Amino acid sequence: AELLKLVISMIACFILDANQNYSVYFNIIYTEFIGNRGDWLKLMVPSVLYTLQNSLQYYSMSCLSAPVFQVLYQMKIITTAVFSVLILSKRISVSQVCCSHLPPMPT
After folding, report:
1. In the list 23, 24, 48, 53, which could disulfide-bond 18, CB 3.0-4.6 Å?
2. Spatial distance between the Cα atoms of 74 and 103, rounded to a whole number of angstroms
3. Spatial distance between the Cα atoms of 103 and 4, rounded to a whole number of angstroms
C-alpha cells in the first residue's frame, strides 16, 4: 500500500509540478531528496513510526480476539488525548472529553 502511494505521488509530481518535463522532474526530485536532506530526515521519523504502528496492528489482529483488538484500538484516541494534555500542555474541553468516551459509529 505504501509503495502504491509512492508511485502515485511520483506520477502526480511529474504531471503537476514538472509539467511532464523530465529534466524539471529530475531536478525537483534531486532538490527535494538530496538538496533538502534535513527536511527529508525530519519527515522520515513519523513515517517510519506510522509504518511500524501499522505492522504491529496487523500482528496484534492475528494474536487477539476481535473484541479485545477493537477495545485496544479505540484506546488510541483516549491515550492521545491524555498525552496531549500531559506532555504538550493542551487544554481539552468538556465536550471533547465526552466525545472521546463515546463508542465509535458503525461504518
Report:
1. 24
2. 9
3. 32
49 CB neighbour count, 10 Å cutoff: 10
Q: pLDDT digits over 83-104, tens only?
A: 888 888 878 787 776 776 666 6
Question: Can you tell me the distance from the alpha carbon of 73 to that of 77, in angstroms, rounded to the nearest whole number?
Answer: 8
pLDDT digits (tens, 9 = 90+) for 4-45: 998 999 999 999 988 999 999 999 888 888 887 778 788 888
Q: What is the 3-state secondary structure (H, E, C) of the chain?
A: CHHHHHHHHHHHHHHHHCCCCHHHHHHHHHHHHHHCHHHHHHHHHHHHHHHHHHHHHHHHHHHCCHHHHHHHHHHHHHHHHHHHHHCCCCCCCHHHHHHHCCCCCCC
Gap between the Cα atoms of 4 and 92, Å rounded: 37
Nine-digit cell string for 25: 522532474
Q: What cell does 79 get?
A: 491515550
